[in-house]
Amino acid sequence: MSTLFEKIGGEGAVDAAVDIFYRKVLADDSISHFFETTDMEAQHAKQKSFLTMAFGGPNNYTGTDMRTAHAPLVAKGLNESHFNAVAGHLQATLEELNVPADLIAEVMAIAASTKDDVLGL
Amino acid sequence: MPNIIYQGKAYLGEVDETVLDTLRRNGIQVPFSCRAGSCQTCMLHCQKGEVTERSQKDLKPALKKLNYFLACQCQPEQDIEVTLPDDEDVYVSARCVEKQQLSPTVWRFRLETAVPMFYHAGQFVNLKNEAGWLRSYSLASLPAEDEHLEIQVRRMPEGQMSHWLIDEFDVGMHIDLEGPNGHCIYTDGEPVKPILMVGTGTGLAPLIGILRDALHQKHTGPINLYHGVRTAEELYLHDNLNALAKQYSNFHYHACVSGEEVVDGINAGRAADIAMRAYPDLKGYRLFLCGAPAMVREMRKNAFLAGASMPDISADAFTEPEHLS
Question: What is the helix (H) or strand (E) element at residue A44, kind and residue range?
Fold first, then answer.
């Protein structure tokens, strides 16, 4: 029985996905302002840890971390439509990489499970 | 919240504050510059207590072991006692062996350290004068070919260290030097990868080092260098770069002047815009971006959106002049 993370291709899959995913997010004017910082490298690293978590990989995220980390963005107006846009880019990234549909569904379920914490609900 | 103890007094930190924030908020003048953990100007010595792993990430092993850390990257979990760095731990003395004016605004200094320093072209050093002014300068020299360290200093109206170096610092004088630091360097193993370099002003200094390193290591892929300045007289390595372009068929030099003058053979406009127009698809490229922070930030984003992979984009953004007064 292999885990989702193994089935999807482990760290290699994260590396393949992160540039495509972050590029889509930055190119989307409706959400890019939440992701633009002076330190793009650090932001890129954050997207990498997010994808590792969404792919079922080893991570240290807790719900509280998610809440604290996103609180400043919620204060700037982060809402459900933004969350859904990011999720859409995640799905499109996986489709572009030809990830099988059943695995995409599992990843999307993990991403969806962070929604309340991300939006501070 | 933890206390920061400095010169016998305790300063209470506030939520989300770094050690640098707490000290500055209390009017303590400690040197700092980039606030992003890269320039190492704000390095302090922790005498008691524990600093965070993040605040020591890029320090040399010996300094880590001595409990040095970067104040702008440290949010301590408990009380810590800190001091300014001990000069003998951090600095070596460097002697000026050559000083030469390269353009109306740029001077070249060649420096010699008592013990040769191991470094890569494109890294930077911190220089500290007797008044305690501290500033980062990129190395323009190539260790394999140059006997001395070379820095290029541009006179900045607001930059007191640049005035001091140009007006006061001279051949035979000594200055404290810390380094080398930074990751903006040529990495071998990919000799055919196309390279795009964009530098504004003395952002050319690290680029010329990296360029010569790449050529020295027999890079065969095309290398295109865009140097952006406001007026043509600021193209301070124009002849050298044209000579290199003649010597190496894979190297191409593009001078860009953003001011109003029109000069034959020189591009009119901003270097980053001209480079992006010439290379709209950067998939598979290696990029080096050095100079004005706004240019570096914008170009990094545009290069990434144009297909360059994030680990392939190396940048060295200058910091705004700011000093311990």
Answer: helix A40-54
How many angstroms separate the CA atoms of B84 and B95, rounded? 24
Report whether CATH 1.10.287.110 matches the domain B3-87: no
Q: Do residue A36 and residue B301 have CB atoms under 8 angstroms apart?
A: yes
Percentage of chain B lying above the pLDDT 90 cut: 77
β B80-83/B3-6 pair status: parallel
Helix, strand, or coil (residue B227): strand
- B310/A40 touch (CB, cutoff 8 Å), yes or no: yes
Q: Which helix (H) or strand (E) holds B97?
A: strand B92-101
Q: For residue B116, what are the CA distances in angstroms to A88, B66, B149, B288, B295?
A: 54, 23, 9, 26, 34
Cα of B59 to nearest chain A Cα, Å: 18
* Chain B residue with Cα closest to A37: B297
- Closest-CA residue of A relative to B314 is A41
Tell me the average pLDDT of chain B. Answer: 92
Pairing verdict, β B106-113 and B92-101: antiparallel
pTM of the model: 0.83
CA-nearest of B246, B179, B189, B237 to B214 is B189
B302 at interface of A, judged by CB pairs closer than 8 A: no
Of B36, B297, B305, the CB nearest to A23: B305
Using the beta-carbon criterion (under 8 Å), do A38 and B36 form an inter-chain contact? Answer: yes
Determine the residue among A20, A22, A39, A40 to mutate to test chain B binding: the one whose Cβ has the most chain B Cβ atoms within 10 Å: A40
pLDDT of res. B282 = 97
Q: What is the CATH number of domain B89-181?
A: 2.40.30.10
Cis amide prior to B180 (ω within 30 degrees): yes
Task: From B232, B135, B136, B233, select the one nearest B181 (Cα to Cα).
Answer: B136
Domains along chain A with CATH numbers: 4-119 (1.10.490.10)
Q: What is the pLDDT of residues B212-231, one digit of tens each?
A: 999 999 999 999 999 999 99
Residue B214 burial by CB count (10 A; 0-12/13-18/19+): exposed, middle or buried? buried
pLDDT tens per residue across span A13-70: 999 999 999 999 999 989 988 887 667 877 888 888 899 999 999 877 777 788 888 9
Is CATH 3.40.50.300 what the domain over B195-317 is classified as, yes or no? no
pLDDT bucket at B320, cuts 50 / 70 / 90? low
- Residue A38 has a pLDDT of 61
